[in-house]
Design goal:
This protein has about 270 residues and is of the alpha/beta class. The protein folds into 2 domains: about 150 residues, 3-Layer(aba) Sandwich (Rossmann fold), CATH 3.40.50; about 100 residues, Rossmann fold (3-Layer(aba) Sandwich). It is built from 11 helices and 10 strands. The protein has a 6-stranded parallel sheet with strand order 4-3-1-2-9-10. Strands 6-5-7-8 form a 4-stranded parallel sheet, with helices on both faces. Strand 1, helix 1 and strand 2 form a beta-alpha-beta unit. The protein starts with a strand and ends with a strand. Its EC number is 5.1.1.3. One of its GO terms (biological process) is regulation of cell shape.
Length: about 270
Amino acid sequence: MKSILVFDSGVGGLSVYQEIKRKLPDQHYIYVFDNEAFPYGELDDDVLIERVSGIINTLCQQHEVSLIVIACNTASTIVLPILRKAHTIPIVGVVPAIKPAAALSKKKSIGVLATPATVSRDYTQSLINEFAPDCEVTLVGTTELVYMAENKIMGREISKVTLSQILQPFYQKTDCIVLGCTHFPLLKNEIQEILGKGYTVVDSGAAIARRVGELLNSVERIGDENFTAQSERPNIAYCSAYKDQIQQIEKELATAFDLKEIRRVPFF
């Protein structure tokens, strides 16, 4: 059985990995995070392209991969065209869930919570223009939540006060909040608790999982491989730098995410 490879700069992509694994529990998974270069929003485009392409190409040479998920908004907007030229297998990217948020909003006023890089990119405005032209959109860019999500995985306490301050621009104004960074769904319970019942919080994880299922079914129908067979191999993770923080999350990755081993990407 081939593997589904899920890639991100840090642990944020675990939110996408969880959704895919929930929908397709019998697949074999490789989760890859480039923690040496985290966060990606601060990298120049050419550096990001070199790192993502190098890591993906190396692991695809070492493993039989059926499908790649780039579970990072920043990397998706920059690297997807290059990866799709280099590989014949399906490659799925992520975009903020602006379309479903616009449909769900009763006030026709939505919020987009993302990294500063995602908030400022033209593609985000294009999504708003295409899918939410009748909505008032409040954009909030924050890197703080990225670090909060990483800290949560490491078992550190999350400051509800800081989180409340970040969410302040949405209060009384919006009724549907888009989590536009894959790190942020790891804090979804805390965000929903602070916002309260009058707000709907959406992310793109479920939509990505559905798309992955559709693509794998298409491959199976043309006879490439039986993707319904259960994998008996343990799911694994790769990091680009084996730092002290990795030791802190190894147990969490194994128990909560069923990633039984962490290896270092040989590209570095």
